[in-house]
């Protein structure tokens, strides 16, 4: 019985191994450099966030403090991005967070992350196609909407009001381009992204000439004498909806940065991935952070926050400032930026499908590579059709609500993976004596004698990380659900809140005291374990801000995924077949090198 349990545990936690040579091998065409990856990252990130999200958060949630909302979101994204950058240098393979989790934590959690990344990219592409359709429709006086309502109505409570044939067509068109090749896709992305950057730079420069500092310090009396059809006015000043509104805005603005992980999915198509991926991720996040903060500053300085149009903030801001001609300039930039974001959503999807299928966790036929084009053609077609169907049937709001949980889980697991691998033995475990494993003492935990990690210290870190993640969720749940009680010093709530903070500090110190691996990478996440732990904590907070319907949809999607994994993936996993080849008599036994 115990051997069966042990074998089952090994099945779920077996990790993927890459040799020094095999980590560089790829069936895909290596043709991308640092410049290509950076422009791809900026193009996929700087789209709907600049033209749609800025106005919504400023008008409804944060007011002028949307600038700080973007800043907080940028910090959270940069923390996760640093962890992605290390893994890009460590394991430059297709699959991004899925692959990173597989090599560090284990197969089951890797499948969960990969399955959610599929949902994230499908919905991301569909929602971007819908946003592109809506923005173009607004420029032609909503002609498409009226036509589709009349000819393609959808009479269902769970679907959109009408079938958006244009959004579906755009998804299929971009899919065809991706089938042709990633280099050709990158060239189109370069043109679209530079057009978008030129428009945004023009908007920022011209907008500053029409800015008024008074719009960041509107008096409460001035606001209270106004009426607004939406009722979202606030109390004026820089924080019209309070600090809570700024933080809630940060949770929304966070999703404006999700495109940067596109860079990590192209690990097998880079000419020098260990160098290109870390540099491109960092440059993408820095550029997008600066531009998002600049755009939100200009909009809120040009127009009082309560007059900002949440659906077309930039065009209406320039119309308000007496420069209506810029509405057309902004329209061109928006169409280019949103199209680049669509390309950035559809490009990583087949790479993730390819990585999971190549490992045998989903049907292997999906991983077929076209011999001449050297692209994952089956995965590209499946991803494109799935996105097109979602774009055809669901509206933008329904799609956006469904895409958040996969992103946050992926960011959290990548941060955890960095912690796991930094405290793992690099080569043969360095054991000074059997006492280090058999009879550890408190001194070993608080002040380990080793200078390099051992099996024992790695196991200690594993348990500490598990405790820290659980405590992070508890700490964030108390903060979110009992803010007023904490402020009012409710004894019970305040006690648990302080206890959770103390435990968080203790777990962090204990992890920091353990010996780290000395392996030198081209790029390493700085200040480990503090940067990954801060990333985990911020992601836990944002995960707990998700709505109940999001968790229900997540449960349904995961149920389907577990059926595929249970009936196919477990039995066809490449690592299981490798285990069988290595140990035909004991396929479920575990070697010391597999231990955490």
TrEMBL record:
Keywords: Membrane, Transmembrane, Transmembrane helix. It is a multi-pass membrane protein. One of its GO terms (molecular function) is L-arginine transmembrane transporter activity. The chain crosses the membrane at residues 34-54, 66-85, 97-115, 162-180, 186-208, 281-305, 325-345, 377-396, 403-423, 460-482, 494-512, 527-544, 551-571. Residues 523-573 form the Cationic amino acid transporter C-terminal domain. It is found in: Membrane. The lineage of its organism: Eukaryota, Metazoa, Spiralia, Gnathifera, Rotifera. This is Cationic amino acid transporter C-terminal domain-containing protein. GO terms for biological process: L-arginine import across plasma membrane. It comes from the Eukaryota.
